[in-house]
Amino acid sequence: MKKHDLVAACLAAFVLLSSCLVRPEAAQGERQAMLRPLPTYPFIRYEENALQFPGGHQPFDTLYQKLDTLLRTGKGRISIVHIGGSHVQAGYLSHQLRTDFATLGDSVMTERGLLFPFRILRTNAPQNYRITYTGHWEGTRCIKPNGTDTLGLAGAAVSTRDHTASLSLTLNLRDSVPFHFTRLRLLGYATDTTAMPYILYKGKELAARHEQATHSYLIDFPEPCGQADIRFRLPSGGRFTLTGIIPENGCDGITYHATGINGADVPAWLRCVHLPQDLRLVCPDLAIFGIGINDANVPPDRFDPEEFKANYRRLIALFKAANPHCALLFVTNNDCLLNLGKRYGKRTNPNTARVARAMKELAEEYGAAVWDQYAIMGGSRSSALWRGKGLMRPDRIHFTAEGYRLIGDLLYNALITDYLETNGN
């Protein structure tokens, strides 16, 4: 070998060796950049912040392949449905997860996901969007045993006969992740084929077209928007029932649908007659099940884990019918208080650990994941410690906004860590 060839070969070997030596540090830096920084509290068991897979990982392998393609090429769509009770209706937890996913890339979070005009029901609404209304409306929720024949993915419905009724949507409030839409999908029903919603846009009317298969009305916009003025054309005696609003733009990326109703347990969601068709519409790739704290809000002798699991199996069947490859993630109940009445007062809820066991048994049965929120936050009586740091409300059931955001960051880190480890990053 000639001298200059030997020198070139040695130089190439040195470059290759150098790249191998720095790659682990670079990879570790990239990995940390994908995770969210967390505050330090002595009572949180950070070492347990991981997804558990009692019965296999295959559905998440499929999900992670889609996520990997999206992050590498910008191509593909991932639909997430997070379903629960008041923890989800509040909007802090789910929107923190949206915000966290958005840090993966400028175009990762593209569509906002399901919206609902909760103020018509005189209940709390997420603070990251606003829907105001005029006119007379009536409403119902899935926590009531009657009037659920129109309910679907939102778990609630509002209806009007008032021709002056309107809705005004503002999508982005106090938001670091700006969302836009080029089409609004209004889920709902009309008693008359001539009853139709429309949009008043810059002094012009944008007509809706009815999509019978999905029980929805589609309204296209001439440009990307973040606001909409929704009106209704109602014949005499006609009624329009709205069961949800989905802003769409047709872009690739992640769509995070959060649907929660205060007080909802698993049977409440099973009352939603049109949930199956709405799930087919959004076709979830990942279902995050945060239902259980209301099922467990009963005296210990009235909580039946087998009945709890049987109800969940019916709900899981609906998600799997919409997408057989849907990955399932169970979020266990947080440590909380149980009100046992005047005689016994409020005690730490013993059903919380029983729900966690039931969810792990379901996860083993379905090849699902479990995020053990109960253990991670510190186990039994840890809610008092969270309350002491301003992370939980005085009822020691619900979190403060700061507490929900911390829970969101913890869950996101657990999910992304598992993704990175699965893909060898």
Q: How would you characterize this protein structure?
A:
The chain is of the alpha/beta class and 425 residues long. Helices cover 35% and strands 25% of the residues. It folds into 2 domains: 49-107 and 252-425, Rossmann fold; 114-251, Jelly Rolls (Sandwich), CATH 2.60.120. It is built from 12 helices and 19 strands. Strands 2-14-1-15-16-19 form a 6-stranded parallel sheet. The radius of gyration is 24 Å and the shape is globular.
Contiguous helical run count: 12
Task: State the CATH class of the largest domain.
Answer: Alpha Beta
Supply the CATH architecture of the largest domain.
Answer: 3-Layer(aba) Sandwich
Helix content: 25-40%
At the fourth CATH level, what is the homologous superfamily of the largest domain?
SGNH hydrolase
Q: Give the N-to-C terminal Cα separation.
A: 39 Å
What is the alpha-carbon Rg in Å? 24 Å
Instruction: Give the low-confidence spans.
Output: 6-24
Number of strands: 19
Principal-axis shape: globular
Q: Would you tell me which CATH topology of the largest domain applies?
A: Rossmann fold
Number of domains: 2
> Which percent band covers the strand fraction?
15-25%
Structural class: alpha/beta
The major pleated sheet works out as: 6 strands, parallel
pLDDT average, as an integer? 91
Strand order of the largest sheet: 2-14-1-15-16-19
